[in-house]
Amino acid sequence: MKAGALLGAAGAAGVGYYHAQIPTSQLYGETICRNREAGKRIALTYDDGPNPAYTPELLELLARHRAHATFFQIGKWVEREPALAREVKEAGHAVGNHTFTHPTLALCSTDRVKEELRRCHTASEAAGIEYSTVDGASLMRCPWGRRRPGTLRAVRAEGYVPVQWSVTGWDWAKRKSADNIADRCLKAREGDVILLHDGVHTEPRADRHKSVYATRQVLERLGAEGYEFVTIPELVGAASPGAPPARS
After folding, report:
1. E strands, 74-209, where?
2. Which segments in the chain show pLDDT lower than 70?
3. 201 is catalytic
4. How confident is the prediction for the chain on average, in pLDDT?
5. What values do phi and psi take at 161, rounded to 5?
6. pLDDT tens by residue, 107-153
7. Catalytic residue among 47, 48, 192, 198
8. CA–CA separation, 193 vs 175, rounded Å?
9. Active site residue: 93, 102, 121, 197, which one?
10. Is 47 annotated in the active site?
11. Residue 245's pLDDT is what?
């Protein structure tokens, strides 16, 4: 293969990788990642729970600030903690599908993607949880946000709408301090979706104290600026008069 062709192939691979990873990219299909028409509303979202060590603390913190959030729960942890998973929904938060085992869906076959979603749904249904919806489609989030066109087609075929994010605290990076995570989240503005975690897909009782700290900082400091903290369905449905609700 000639040098030019090699460079072209490398460039195409780089573009493909970029759009499979970047949460706000819409090249491979429409996803919910922000709503700039939402005014002073922000959506806090949490992945990889329910976690008995930290999800209850987050629920108490959110309740104290009269804030609502969206939790993307892993099926195997829902099976392990059905009462806690149900408590999240009963507290008024939105709940979505985050697969059963947390694989990289971009590397999975269509059948595997559908199996992961169905097993997670079955676990949630057994726990008495009904997923929150936007325009009749249930919420889901791809693990790590990674997807490809086939991934999103399979997700939609199962009746889901994919949810990404526009701001992340990078709270999964062990070297990040609690203050660094909070500072990143505090960059959120009108209509942003913040990604944090209440659990870890490899540990049922993982340490997420930094995520709790970041949440407290966001609620206190952005709340003092007049921001409201809403669920994904509320964020998508919030638009300025005469403007359609944006999803990107």
Report:
1. 94-97, 133-134, 137-140, 160-162, 167-168, 193-197
2. 1-19, 239-248
3. no
4. 91
5. -115, 125
6. 999 999 999 999 999 999 999 999 999 999 999 999 999 999 999 99
7. 47
8. 23
9. 197
10. yes
11. 40
